[in-house]
């Protein structure tokens, strides 16, 4: 008796995250705790979000709260937005509404993979890729990013591909590094995947994980691999740009460059698979609100101010950081090279960062910029004191 083998593998892969989450939850009881861990809101919800939901709560028909699949208004609005944003001819039928990016990734895996298939994932990368793959009875294969720049390492991706590879996952803007990859990178990756697909006699798909697509700094442009590699699916979540991860709204989009016959097969599978994975569609009210939410966003000017405040202070103290081009995170190498020890020392002062052990990079740490500027200002004296101590070899 016991849980399944795939459940055991998934649990083991995410144990470090759940253990850390429990610590954060315990620290939340401390009113003086300064939390920079997960990308949760620290201020009241955006007025535009509240208004969009409020406008859809009152029933207008008797079936207002009935089962909903992918609502046509939401699909049409999103397809139009993608046509403008990415310059590709998306149609409403290319869009499947999901429970955030989690749901979109689950749908993509159900759509494209069979048990035992290999899926290449970036490292460091989002800590939920691996457990999700194990839970789907798939095999994660890690492809390290470039050690210093955290660019996609095409050589590492090529080395990770085998005859069993079915999907390569890419993430831009990237969590945790904040990197935004240029169109030239996608062109090189497209060539690589085309060659590998031909070599192994099996199409390798690309899943472009884009939940931070609209969170970019300094005028950095965004390019999607869907524009250069036809066999691309895009997952997206509104939870990031709205800073409301508890309101589950996202979608999976099929690249309009997928050959028509193959795209028709995929389109026809979206609804039955959305049902099969556990009714993976967003709640009715969130779907009704989707058209209004397309134009709602966190304050990017304020987010840039917080990035610059923390980045400037830490870099000025000698901490090695990757300047984020997107997302709402800072990624750095801990002074002394031990991210766990660094984060534990900060926690003793009531400042909570995320250690790089959650990303398979124990020498690093991640900081969420969703904390308020007041929290940043309160944390900086303690933070800089701990940094100075580590740099002086006191620990």
> If classified by CATH, what would the architecture of the largest domain be?
3-Layer(aba) Sandwich
Shape: globular
Uncertain spans: none
Named CATH topology of the largest domain = Aspartate Aminotransferase, domain 2
Mean pLDDT: 97
Total beta strand runs: 13
CATH hierarchy class name of the largest domain: Alpha Beta
How many structural domains are formed by the residues? 2
Task: Outline the biggest β-sheet.
Answer: 7 strands, mixed
Output the CATH homologous superfamily of the largest domain: Type I PLP-dependent aspartate aminotransferase-like (Major domain)
Order of helices and strands: HEHHEHEHEHEHEEHEHHHEEHEEEH
Structural class: alpha/beta
Any idea what the radius of gyration is? 21 Å
Strands of the widest sheet, in order across it, are: 2-8-7-6-5-3-4
Helix content: 40-55%
Family: Belongs to the class-I pyridoxal-phosphate-dependent aminotransferase family.
Domain Aminotransferase class I/classII large: 34-380
Cofactor: pyridoxal 5'-phosphate
InterPro entries: Aminotransferase_I/II_large, NHTrfase_class1_PyrdxlP-BS, PyrdxlP-dep_Trfase, PyrdxlP-dep_Trfase_major, PyrdxlP-dep_Trfase_small
Secondary structure layout plus pairing:
Blueprint: H1 5-27, E1 34-35, H2 47-57, H3 72-86, E2 95-98, H4 100-112, E3 118-123, H5 129-135, E4 139-144, H6 154-160, E5 165-171, H7 183-200, E6 205-209, E7 232-237, H8 238-241, E8 250-254, H9 260-276, H10 284-293, H11 300-316, E9 320-322, E10 329-333, H12 339-348, E11 351-352, E12 354-355, E13 364-368, H13 373-391
Parallel strand pairs: 1-11, 3-4, 3-5, 5-6, 6-7
Antiparallel strand pairs: 2-8, 7-8, 9-10, 10-13, 12-13
Helix pairs in contact: 1-5, 2-10, 3-10, 11-13
Protein name: Aminotransferase
Family: Belongs to the class-I pyridoxal-phosphate-dependent aminotransferase family.
Keywords: Aminotransferase, Transferase
